[in-house]
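Marked as duplicate of an earlier ticket. Keeping the data here for the record.
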Amino acid sequence: MSRTILILSFFLSCQLFSQEESTPTDDIRAPIEEDGVRVSVLGYHDFSPTKPETEMLISTTKFRKQMERLKEMGITVISMDQFIAWKQGKATIPDKSVVITIDDGWKSVHTEAYPILKKLKYPFTVYLYKNYVDGGGKALTTPMIRDMVKNGVTIGSHSVSHPFPITFRKFRDKGENAYDKFLRIEMGESKRYLESRFKTKVKTYTYPGGYLAKEMLPLVHEFNYDAAFTIEPKKVTRLTPNDQIPRYMILGNYDKIFEFATSFSDPNAPIIPAENTPPVEVPAEPTDHPVLPESGAVINSRLPKISADLSKVENLDPESLEMHVAGFATVPATFDPETKVFSWQVNRRLRHPRCDVRVTWADTDGNPTPKPLRWSFQIDREAAYLLEDD
């Protein structure tokens, strides 16, 4: 099966996930008419002149070529203010227009991307989350951000802590009041902080990791965001809901995304999604024995320890134990005779958003277990990237 088909299949699964997590709120836009214009919103993260490219990191050279390619193709790069004015029916823009956004606030935005965009006179928006501003190491500093704002760069809100899906779910499980308070801090305090610190209006929001739940939509309007961006990869029209605006997340290691994002020839062309789209929801099916990561769990590491507690298995023959992990086949798991835990430390980063595990064994008489232990868990790829590179 080709990579394109695999990614398309993954996108369809993600669409089902997104529909379950969110429902549109009442549209706050004034009645406007469709004008036939389609806009492509590009999303980037990190840049480097020397590091190997990943989904989240693109080489400085490739980024420069992509930006120059926009000019060669006659695509106009518009500012966030122009985009919002067009969405509100207050302005017109060229038929082929692009908005450039960059998430998280990596220092490389200032050192690598900013000089290129400044030279080409391309406006862009940086989405910052409060806890990473002046976060040390690879994080943007206040002077860097102020330098960009002084020169016309727009900043937007990307939450306070950049929570991952598992964090949203933990607060949701605590009850309606706790969940509402959590969302209000993440979406409201981030805006207040950025406006106060950088003396500029923060008009837009990006959902961290693209995670979108129905409870967030009313808060987009309550906190007076003119637009909120997802990571659903398709073109934007005037009638696209302002609280669920799609973006093409440009991958460093898969150039097709940029090609589809900048193709305006066929409005019905297939959409190729970014691979850091929210993970496919893995059902938390119960297992006969305790396992880690738990069935259906969303984890933040691509190097987890996988284990199964087989202490309740009678007449287990330890020599017969086998663990199969998707992408690795049979792995060299070890059995602890005292705890009866069969485990393996992943030694090469898991590449896919879903990991399937199967454990088999036989009893001391040589009879194989009639029901192998099977479970699946998810990798939050953006979370893993942030944690590994902080």
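See parent ticket for discussion. Residues 86 and 92 are 6 Å apart (CA to CA).
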